[in-house]
């Protein structure tokens, strides 16, 4: 039985950590291509200038147009080649981070998230899009980032909504890893990238990955609300430190090496619901996690705990919370059909998947959320 655990080489987190970025660049050479939205660079320019001077390195600002397209990443690769930069830095949110992964192709990559809204920074995969923003393809690389550096002061100064959305993405980690573990499913991300000739089968997740996924859920319950309050005040506390690590490191390792299941597949299906388009990934994943728990007929107490947690920090528990005021069975069925395509992670659930049952779970999850709000006097 093959098992695999996928990790970045280094993960470093702390207040004012961005001032050490120059040191990590210097371990590769004297210059780095900086891939980031210009406004994100401006937010941290004093720290970038200070670390460049201290460690005698140079940042080449490649800019970023905001979308991870083949043309944009090729343009950035040409800059790196022309300037002969020694490493690549992806700074900012998920799109800039994914663009940097494509440009670096698994070599000499430093990731610097400025928000803790999702768990992509540690992974060795990226999502490509077309010019109009529609999905193009997934890209996988031979290894995870060389360095993931998180400055908690920068995270604390970002809008709290991003931190909460990150907790929504992290919320699914344990429940999906548990389902994958119980079904003895293979974890697609554990496949080596490039040529796969001669490989008999992808690997399963390790017990270490499952343990990290479980710790992810435990940390959210213990410190999620306290971290939100700290972020509201734009200050760093130990609770905020714990949740930033949970959102980025534990959730990242948990999903990549523990596996995804129904929650992320249902999230992907919800792309057909126009009202949900303006909500963050983690916000939609939170509701999809409730739908997964309904689908697997989870323990009532566990489901209530998830609802209590989501309510406490402001994560969606109904479809109306993500812009979908009502849903017909036919609309839920369209979501379910996309969620249940053969390649989707929903087939890691420990039972056969029936499209109609997935549609039913979405509708019932919404009703359960509505009933919860009525019981709590929230409507």
UniProtKB/TrEMBL annotation:
Annotated residues for binding of glycerol = 119, 169, 264, 281
Describe cofactor binding as the record notes it: Binds 1 zinc ion per subunit.
Stored SUPFAM superfamilies = Dehydroquinate synthase-like
Does the record carry Oxidoreductase as a key word?
yes
Pathway participation: Polyol metabolism; glycerol fermentation; glycerone phosphate from glycerol (oxidative route): step 1/2
> What family is it from?
Belongs to the iron-containing alcohol dehydrogenase family.
Q: Sorted alphabetically, which PANTHER family does this protein's record hold?
A: GLYCEROL DEHYDROGENASE, GLYCEROL DEHYDROGENASE 1
Enzyme class, UniProt record, top EC level: oxidoreductase
Enzymatic reactions:
glycerol + NAD(+) = dihydroxyacetone + NADH + H(+)
What protein name applies here? Glycerol dehydrogenase
The EC code for this enzyme is 1.1.1.6
| Record-listed NAD(+) binding positions | 94-98, 123, 129
Keyword vocabulary terms for this entry: Metal-binding, NAD, Oxidoreductase, Zinc
Q: Which organism is it from?
A: Enterococcus pallens ATCC BAA-351
**Gene3D superfamilies tied to this protein:** 3.40.50.1970, Dehydroquinate synthase-like - alpha domain
Q: Which cofactor does it need?
A: Zn(2+)
GO MF annotations, alphabetized: glycerol dehydrogenase (NAD+) activity; metal ion binding
This protein's GO cellular component annotations are: cytosol
- Annotated Alcohol dehydrogenase iron-type/glycerol dehydrogenase GldA domain ranges read 8-152
What PROSITE patterns has UniProt attached to this entry?
A: ADH_IRON_2
